[in-house]
Amino acid sequence: SPAQHDQTLFEERHLRYIHPLGKGNFGSVELCRYDPLGDNTGELVAVKKLQPNKQSTLEDFKKEVKTLSILHCDYIVKYRGVCYSTGRLSMSLVMEYLPNGSLIGYMENNRHNVTPRRMLLFASQICKGMEYLQTLRYVHRDLAARNILVASESLVKIADFGLTKVIPCDKEYYRVTQPGESPIFWYAPESINESRFSHKSDVWSFGVVLHELFCYCDTNSNPKRVRRMFSFKHPSISMQLANILKNNWRLPAPPNCQPKVCSLYMIQ
Ligand SMILES: CCc1cc(O)ccc1-c1ccc2c(C(=O)Nc3ccc(C)nc3)n[nH]c2c1
User: Fold this and answer.
1) pLDDT tens profile 94-122
2) Does the predicted TM-score (pTM) go above 0.90?
3) Taking CA atoms, which of 10, 36, 131, 188 is between 20 and 30 Å from 177?
4) Catalytic: 35?
């Protein structure tokens, strides 16, 4: 039957659960081994189960799968396929497993042997991945170090396309109607103020990722730290953030950041 030759169809009975991976950010992601021979020689995969809830419906999930299945780029996590649960009531997304986890954990654990040169290598790879997405008119909308996965000490890949949208051909931006919980500290001003997303707003988020990289993803310099500057009273956090950005406040230069990188920082 065609299903036997469809490499992107994973049979639930061969998908062996190992342990949980993503905490919250990627939804519920689990490490599994797809082991049809039953001898533990199968490949390790990252699996995201879909629980249709108020945030994401089966339709949203099918859109994420559609988005992923046509992406072929060295700097984007590879789509492997889907696994339908018995009765097709729910489905899971199967992606390649990257053994070193997200950039956040990697930078924290490898602070001493990640040189600025290596950071620029990672930054250029994220750039190439985003450039590829732009050629397909995709806007990621959630570019952040937490969504960059480390394949090896010299290769990172962009992950988590749950929020990715395609810009309509007649427009230059995508307007979100129902913004869920928004990562506003990575958002460009127009995204905060008007829920407008474009390649330009992805570039802004890339700037925040550069900041995270050069701060070794240190939680003390994390963009969320900005929140401490705000009163928890009114106006809302996003209003306060929008105001200081309008007054040209920007993230502070990362501590002991190289002069040449800092000059790059000044053009931000
Ligand atoms: C399936 C969800 C998804 C959806 C999407 O649209 C794009 C990418 C992914 C995804 C998310 C996470 C991972 C992971 C990992 O989390 N790996 C690891 C390894 C080691 C440690 C400590 N932590 C973590 N590997 N491949 C992954 C693919």
Assistant:
1) 999 999 999 999 999 999 989 999 999 99
2) no
3) 131
4) no
